[in-house]
Structures are given as C-alpha cells and as structure tokens.
Structures
1.
Amino acid sequence: YASANEAWRKTIDAITQRGPVTPEDYLRLGTAYAAVGDYRKAAAALRVSVEREPSLRAWLLLSRVESMTFQFASALASAEKAGGRSDAAVLTARCRALAGLSRYTEAVSDCREARRLAPSSPEALYYLGVAYEELHRSGEALTSYESFLQETDALHSIDAYGHFLRGNARLSLAQLRTPGGEVPAEVIVAAIGDYTRAVNLQETFARALYNLGLACVRLGRSEDARMYLENLKKLNDSEKDRELADMLMEAIRGMQRH
C-alpha cells in the first residue's frame, strides 16, 4: 500500500513541479490526487481537464470524486455528461449518484442495465443492494450484496473505495439476515478489516475512518474508536468531515454513558 501511495505522490510532484499544461496532465493529476484521497484537489484538476477537453475518463472520475465528497447532484450531472446510457461505466456512476440522492427506483433500473452490459463489473451490484434495501425488497438486497462480496473476493486488486464498499456490504448483509438483532462480532471484525485496508490505501478516507470508529464502538473498543476519531478530526477538510467527526464523538459518548 505504501509503495502505491508513494508512486502516486511522485506523479503529483512531477506534474506540479513543471506545471500541468494539457488536459491529459490535469487528468493524470486528478487521478493521482483521487488515488491518495485528496478529493478537493482531484476535483479541481479534473474540472480543468473536462473544460479543456471533455473525455469519458475525466467525467467518470469527476463523478466518482464528487460522490465521495457527498456532492451527489454534481456527480449525477458529471455522469450524464460522460455519455449515454449504453455504457456500463456511465450507468454505474449514475447508480452511485442516484443512491446518494435517495432516488432508489431509478438506481435499480440503471444498476440492472449496467449489469446487463457488463456482468463482470461488481460495483453496480453493491448499489443495487443499497437501492433494494431502501425499497424494502430484502430478498433482492440480500442476493445483490452476497453476489457483490463473491465477485469482489475473486478480484486480484481492489482499490480503497472497493474495500470500503465491501465493509458496508458485510454489515448490511448481516443486518438483513438478522432484522432487529445484533450483528455478529465476527462480521464487524471482518468489516473492520475492509475499512482498515481502505484507510491503508487512502489515509484521508473520511468515511472509512468514520465507519472504523463506529465499528469499534459496536465492539466496545473505546480506545480504538477514539483513535479513529482523532484521525478524522485531523482532516477537517470539509463541513462533511467535521459532521462525521461530531457524529462519531457522540457515538463514543453514548457508549461511555452505557
């Protein structure tokens, strides 16, 4: 993980030292910033790239970065600018944004079409599970999450976001299997492993840090939860980061009260 991050940081240094010039320079810079979790700078570079020379790659990555920073309306607009609904990657980007906007019926339609066009692309399966779960279609949600975990188990390489989604899918699956019951400790531990891998790849991944802290709260591991809270508070890069830190702090206080 460290060597991959170091390579991306070298790319950032090389481009910024000589100064980005071409749309491809800005796309490479945005890709590198996104890989190390600096989404604000990634979005800025990618917007320059698409303004100068719109491309499918740049629009799709911008949409993903915007979703990562909870700008779901912008993420949907970027996905729509990337191309029509005959491309599985565009449809997956739409699924991600639509789920964030709570437009779950539309998300189901786009996720299903993305899977039809690209059966080996698992991310659409995850968002299909999210949409089905929110629409109270529990059986279909279970199947989607199970298939997502099976398919990503078979991948040789998973990025930080993929590990983050795997942690989420494990917990959602367990909750669907035991409605109203406690999620087994071993499932929470496995999710912690996923979130830890995500943070190892992107140490500024606020949502993964938040979920790590919450998982530790669920296991009664207050010291670990406070450590992740401190890491989250150090980011302080956006209003959403601060909101996540406040929510995690309240969860820790709630654990201590009980």
Note: The radius of gyration is 19 Å.
2.
Amino acid sequence: VHTIELKFKLPVDSVNDIRNLKKLLFLFFTMISIMSYSKDFILSKKEIIEKFTENSKNIKSIDVVVEDTIVNKNNNDTLIVYKEASLILKPFSMKLTIKMPSFDIYVYAKDGYICTAESFDFNWKKRINQKMVKEFQASVYNQNEVYNIIKNNIDKIELEEIRGNYILTISDPYIIKDLIEKHLLMGTTDNSPKKILIDDDIFLKYIVDKKNLLPIAFIFSANISYEYGVENLTVGAKYFNINNVKTIILPDEAKNAKK
C-alpha cells in the first residue's frame, strides 16, 4: 500500500494574513475579557448606596469626633460643642467626652453602669441606669434607620466622586426634615417644640470610602424655628478605627465612683 502525502505550500502573503488574523483575534478576545472584568467591578449608583448602607449597619465598633455648631439667626451668637466618642455596640460600652465652652463632661457606659464627671470638680458618679443606657444605644441604632431611609430613596440621592471618595447628598429637603423630626439626626433629648425650615441651608451629605464603602464623614445643616427664634444647626462627624475598637477601659476614678 502506497501512501500519498500531499503537501501544500501557502503563499507568503497568505501566511502573513493568517498570522495577522491570529493577532487580531487575540487582541479582540483580550479586550472582551477586560471589558467583562471591568463591568463586574464598576458599581452602579444603586449598588454603591446599597453596599454603603449595609456595611454601615454592620459596624461593630467605632471612634467618632463630632462638632455641633448652633448659630442664633437673630443675633449671630454661636455655640460650638465638640464630642469625642468610642463605641462598642455588642456588648454596649461607650466613652464620651463633651467639650462645652466653659467645662467638659465625661461619660462612660459599660456593664449597665453610667459613670459621669464634669471638669470643674471631677467628682465621678456611678449610676445603674438602664433607661439612660438604652437612650445612648438608641441614639446609635437610630443611624440604622437613617441608612434604611437612604436605601429606600436612592432616586433622591446625588452621587459624585471627589478625590477618590464618594459623596452622597440627599437632595430632597423633606427627607432631612423628616429625619430631624423623628430625632434620627438630633438624638432623643431635644423634645422642644420646633419647626424645620425648608430653605437653601438644609442639606445632608456623607463622605464614603471608595475602597470599603464605609463612612468617612457626615454633615448636615438646617434652620430650625423655636418659640424664641430661628437657629441654624450644623453637625459634622468624622469616623475612625471602624471595627477596630477592641475595648473601652474605665479610669480608676470612674471604677471606684460611689453609686
């Protein structure tokens, strides 16, 4: 049996065309894979806000610095209050320093106790006050309700990227008004009659870390009408050590305080 071997020799131009075709196909599939990869990692506005709110609701511990500025619109008198806090949510413990213009207040909450002192005498007092502990807890967990409202109003939130971080701005003033009236932005202690004014000064913003979609800072402002006049309230907060606060240690003076 004789085998006949057929050999074909393609013209040089055809060989070059095949090589070029292979290169083009390689580049094409490479670009497709890059586009697919990028599509998976470019988050939409909805995804960014949803991930931010869920990540924020799952924060276990945090350090926060807050500045409250209250300006009387009638005479421009200004009160600035600084707050520094460390929080562990479960089991709940807190260290809080409130810096007033003329004195400071120190608060520790741990193991169901509230320990307080003021800077002019540092006379520590210890109280078993579950109601006060629950109020502190409520002021923290209120933020979860804020995050739910943000998540449910994505169409009313502006999203932009500045210097490598996301800026979330609630553009609907009535949402901010509702948050204030429900004590979700001002805490649970301000029960005085008031009216939130809808004007150009009302806003609410979050600065969000683009890498982990956790909050970096928060600021809101509003003009509030009381019986005695109108005040502008601006609250700004910066967050640190998220999920890295391991323990809160009471000073010996607080530990040994009398009940």
Note: The two ends are 111 Å apart (CA to CA).
3.
Amino acid sequence: LRLWGVLDGALVQAQKAVELDPTNYLAHQALGQTYAARGEQGTMKAAVDAYKEAARLATGEPKAVQATLQDDMALVLAALGDNEASIEAYRKACSLDPTNAQYLNNLGAALQRSGNLPEAQQAIARAVELEPGGTAYVANLAVASREAGDLDTAIATYLEAIRLDANNAQMHQQLGWTLYMRSDPGKAIASYIAARTADITDDQVREALATVALHFFRNQRTSRIDAMDPRVYEATPRLARSPNPGLTLRSDLRELWNT
C-alpha cells in the first residue's frame, strides 16, 4: 500500500503489525517508513521513534540490516534539520557496514552541512574508492574538496566526473567556477562553453559564463583584436539564446567589441 501511495491504509496496516508482533523489528521498520513517507513534521518525528525501536530490536540481526536502519533513520533526522543526530546515525551505519559507499557519501554530505569539511572530504573520498564509477560520488567529492579550499583536488575530481559523464552540463559548469576561483578564467570559459554545448538550457550557466567572460576580457585583454577573438565572438549565438538580454553573452561581448 505504501509503495502504491495509499499512505493512510499503509499506516493502519503497519500499526496493526506492531500491535500483533511488537518485538518484530520489521514491523517497526515498516511503520517508520510509512510515517516518513507522509513527510509531515509530526509523522517524521514518529518515524524516528519507530526506527529507534526497530534498531533496538534488530541488535541480533546481520550488521548490514542494522546499518540500513541507521541510514534510514539518519535521512529522516536530516529532513527534520537535526544534523548532529543525523551524523551520529550515519556514523553508526558506516561502522556497521564500512564498505557501503552510499552510507559514506551520506555521512560526507551531513558533515558538509555541519561545516566539518576535512572529514566530509575524507568520507566521500572513501565512497569514491569503493565505487570509482559512481558519478554522483565523484561529483560530491569535487564539491567537498572545493568547499575545503582544495581547488587542485576539486578540479581533478571534476575532470574525472566529466570523463564518466561527458555530457553533464552541471559538471562543466562547476568545473568552470572552480577554475575561475583558481584565477584560470581562460579554461573557465572553455568549461562553460562545454556546458552550453551539452544542449541543456540553463540560465544560471549562461549568466555565469557571461560573468566569467567579462572578467576575463576586461582584465586580460592586450588589445581589442586579441581580446575579442572572432572565433569566440562567432560562437556566442548558440551560447546566448535567453529571453532575458541581461543574461546573454552575445550582447556583453558586442559591448566589449564596440569599446
């Protein structure tokens, strides 16, 4: 019933299961899942209580089962905004199942939210080691590295994410910002152009591209001709098809060309 979206009926059945067999961790787990699926403040708190009881009853179960309960509870705690309790539950999940990349990635995300950037980077790096082909983990590692101020690692990791998914415009965009932060605007522009050629309409990408391009041309041009390479100028129509002229690279470059 829960999977079909019939949450009221699912809740009645889960409560009945707990009533009939109060020592069965699966019944409490199902109750927690149903409360969490409702997504309301009160039911989310009830979901945490149900998961806690399920975890208590599952102490004799395989560690992988116990880890799943901790990870599920951590997700609910994070949704409630209790980041510290969420981190504690994620740590328990990782301790019970230390080779689960998803748990490590979730722990890293929670640590990022708390501002513990070095440990976040370490946790997500471990997730990448376990699943090197996991694009989401690689991308998260790049973000964590950048937030920790480790721009070289962030750039190398974004490049790996792009290798895994060459048409991911978001990764090209984030690589562009990171290169810009490292004062490498020329390569940043190339990354933004790559993002636009991924055929994904994204005004934020377009706006960022215009911002970086303006910075580059205003601060690094040696002459009007060198600064406004015709190849760059001719490429702008396909990079700037926004209904908002304020976001278009073409108009910005035309202004620079004229001045």
Note: The chain has a mean pLDDT of 78.
